[in-house]
Design goal:
Blueprint (H helix, E strand, L loop, with lengths): L8 H5 L1 E4 L13 E6 L5 H17 L2 E6 L6 H13 L4 E4 L8 H9 L3 E5 L11 E4 L2 H15 L7 E5 L5 H14 L17 E6 L4 H14 L5 E4 L2 H13 L7 E6 L2 H8 L5 E4 L2 H18 L5 E4 L3 E3 L12 H6 L4
Parallel strand pairs: 2-3, 2-4, 4-5, 5-6, 6-12, 7-8, 7-9, 9-10, 10-11
Antiparallel strand pairs: 1-3, 11-13
Length: 336
Amino acid sequence: MVRRGIVLAVAGALALSACGSGAKGSGGGTPKVGLITKTETNPFFVKMRQGAQAQAAKDGLKLMTAAGKFDGDNEGQVTAIENMVAAGVKGILITPSDTKAIIPAIKRARDKGVAVIALDTPTQPQDATDALFATDNFKAGQLIGQYAKARTAGQTPKIAMLDLEPGVSVGILRHNGFLNGFGAATVDAKAAQPATAPQVVCAADTGGDQAKGQTAMENCLQKAPGLTIVYTINEPAALGAYTALKAKGLEKKVLIFSVDGGCTGVKGVKDGQIAATSQQYPLKMASMGVDAIAAYAKNKTKPAGYTDTGVTLITDHNVTGVDAKDTAFGLQNCWG
């Protein structure tokens, strides 16, 4: 949460694993399902792959997995889709790196009868896939925005927005949700562009990367002294921002709010580096997606529509009017 490279051929890019021997496919073999993530190493996608593997074993499917070489590798994801279709998968689960550029490849797969489900990140438009299993990312941003507003009541807000990068739906949704929840901008989940607000005194893209988050924070501190609030697209960016604040002795004066709910991030909340985070559940996304493909393989009913896989505000400093769970809950349900 950046970009270019190719995932090559089935042997190099797709790891085929037999996860059971349940219902037979139309050709008499075990039905296959594919999972394509943005990267292989991000803990979020590692947990997603674990969820898919476990559910595939339960449902009697063979799981094929692939990933881009880095976040943003659309060409690699296109190659992975083509390889999986050629291998005869019944369905593909994908976290699209480029939510627009991937659409022609998805359409070609769907035209051949393959069900395609987006996980975590919706395509643009969302109905380019059969279904979406994901966090309500607008709500995730909204929750930390509401919490930030209540936590900093009485202060004059000066907000830095450490975003993902232009044009990625998940980044736009979280950004706009935060400003909506904070009451800084009138914006809804259908907006196609990030909103602006007078309280925002600095904005920068981080690609969801810790080092880039630190650099962005350093630049914002130079541009806009007196910051009180930092929104970050995810917890790696949040921890980078914290490093920059601490170097200036500002870690107690500026509050950081984020999204993800990984174990490292929740520990950051527990240790006071991050004020609050919105926790999402990648294992649930993947397991529900695999289950939907298993049902399609069995009864030919394609999955459809949006399924909200849940989001929970995690903080150890509750405020009136905003529902939250503490870091003990967060650590029990985190990933990574």
